[in-house]
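User: Show me a protein chain along with its predicted structure.
Assistant: Here is one chain, sequence first, then structure tokens.
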Amino acid sequence: MRKVYSDAQTALAGLLRDDMTIMAGGFGLCGIPETLIGAVRESGVRGLTIISNNAGIDNVGLGVLLETRQVKKMISSYVGENKTFATQFLAGELEIEFNPQGTLAERIRAGGAGVPAFYTKTGVGTLVAEGKETRVFNGETYVMETGLVADLALVHAWTGDSEGNLVYRMTARNFNPMMATAAKTTVAEVERLVRPGDINPDHIITPGIFVKRMIHVPNAQKRIEQRTTRKRHATPAGAGEEV
């Protein structure tokens, strides 16, 4: 089965519809499937539920879908860098389901593993636990969280072969591998496209069985969400000179 498509629009053809649930990999702006997100925007689908650690920033990543008001609900952990997100939420125009970050990761992993629910101590006694079932194990209270699954997962990988096997690079790995397993259909964008057999089997993180379609994005832009630098101090005149 051919998995490599010429562009993002072609790769997503027939997969997008209004009111669907989409998982989008990435952490901040690291490892986000930016090219695929752009194609979702161009498609014009609306009423989307997006599962993602965060919502990108204004004009970048998932932020572009918020600007066009294509998103109905976000299931996320952190959204503090997006002013558009805050504006829509405070105006009652966007629904939010907040999760502790580890809980969000485990909900996605559980969904991919076919686990419908699990218990965790995180959030017990806080707003996170309101309306949720709790149980006591060994004298400790735990709150039940449900697994998450999506209609479509969009992920970004460093290297992939034409069979869909994926390798992620450093922190860009983040939520991508677990999301690739937790959707009915997974579409990947890869920076390096190689032939089957070129990836050491021991290095494969997402087996190709989970990836239905993919595109090659050799010039993916690597954005920095917040650049923090140390101020340069002027070198005193004569410092370092030989006497």
